[in-house]
Amino acid sequence: MTIYQNFIAGEWVGSDATKNINPSDTNEVVGLYADGTVEDTKNAIAAAKAAFPAWSRSGIWERHVILKKAGDEIMARKDELGALLAREEGKTLPEAIGETIRASQIFEFFAGEALRLAGEVIPSVRPNIGVEITRDPLGVIGIITPWNFPIAIPAWKLAPALCYGNTVVFKPAELVPACSWAIVDILNRAGLPKGVLNLVMGRGSVVGQTMLDSPDVTGITFTGSTGTGRRVASASIEHNRKFQLEMGGKNPMVVLDDADLTVAVEAAANSGFFSTGQRCTASSRLIVTEGIHDKFVAALTAKLETLVVDNAMKSGTHIGPVVDEKQLKTDTDYIEIGKKEGAKLAFGGELISRETPGFYLQPTLFTEATNQMRISREEIFGPVVSVIRVKDYEEALATANDTPFGLSAGIATTSLKHATHFKRNSEAGMVMVNLPTAGVDFHVPFGGRKGSSYGPREQGKYAAEFYTSVKTAYTLA
Ligand code: ADP
Hints:
Layout: E1 3-4, E2 6-8, E3 11-13, E4 17-22, E5 25-34, H1 38-56, H2 60-76, H3 78-89, H4 93-115, E6 120-123, E7 129-137, E8 140-144, H5 152-163, E9 167-171, H6 177-189, E10 197-199, H7 204-213, E11 219-223, H8 226-238, E12 242-246, E13 251-255, H9 261-273, E14 283-289, H10 290-306, H11 325-341, E15 344-347, E16 364-369, H12 374-377, E17 384-390, H13 393-401, E18 408-412, H14 416-425, E19 430-433, E20 453-454, H15 464-467, E21 468-476
Helix pairs in contact: 1-7, 2-4, 3-4, 3-6, 4-5, 9-10
């Protein structure tokens, strides 16, 4: 079998490899992907550092052309790359193709941003002096990504990093190297000079840790678990390095008595269970007022009956497998915890077998949960959702905000007053009215508050805040 190698200083290198396994069919090896070493990572950092002076001064047209070419190729290959994504991660083929299209759109967006770089010219408070404010590239950016969006998250970090003139060392999650390898191959063929983009696949404790420990990595953008995020933070503070973290969520969706029941059920089913509940914006707490509670639970349960859990590649599948055995164990452990805590298992909770061997779990719904239970406070990252009954809107809002996290929050209501109040008073970075808590646009800021995020927002023009450093220059006229 071919080994998909690491890409360092413009060369494909590495001979040790790890199997990339399909969670929908554990007999299938998606490919063999290089297992990077400390040495590889150091070489990649050195290459990125050496390439920085020239790339940081490269013309904006060159950056535009490369990013545009990459976006176009990803779009032209959306079905093939979507299938690769579905095979390595386990989300359904339509979801995987949708994510691939989004990756292409992100490259298109930042291809445009490269041409829109601008500063400000302002008069000084002192006479005869002019002030210019410009943005410089940061330097070598370390990109560390998780497994749940194998192409979109790399795209939303790589595209702005390159757009603003930085060089990159990119380490994707161990479980999903294939899409990252494909993007790096595409960007390389689109014309990036040697050393500007380096890919080091491999373990977090080896490749990732070497990046954290290097004084030559000037910025790190990380999406992943809270525990690893804290390591990124403390190592970065030690090196006086800029960093940006996107971590967990325990996103609430409030359903009020006056909600349109169909809208609420569709949004809850989508938020909680699509992509197997493995989205940081997934809604895992449904906070429902008394008057609609029983109707909502009955309608949501009826909806869950209709959802097909099966091989991600099969047409008609709504929910693919859990990503791997470790995550499946986390999910089933939390299901046991929920039962012990006294929540009522209203639907699911069982492992299921399908034609192909994989990590299949029923969508699982708990009712009669409280907001103090562990299943309501800790991120599970699987298709496991709790319903929390509340008296009225005020209690719903207070419950929604009573969480260590603050990524996304939703409300289903036909009341303008409550929707407006919720938008103003939710302590989340993203608020959705009559929409799933997951599913965001590619051209506007993404990010959260409290324990969910740290540092500037990602995506849209707000991305510039992290990937550049502001300079203020004064000139005597
Ligand atoms: P998850 O539980 O979603 O896998 P992790 O935080 O473990 O979350 O993984 C997110 C990314 O962080 C992955 O690319 C992983 O390899 C990387 N990672 C894990 N440990 C470290 C570490 N010590 N230093 C840097 N990166 C790490």
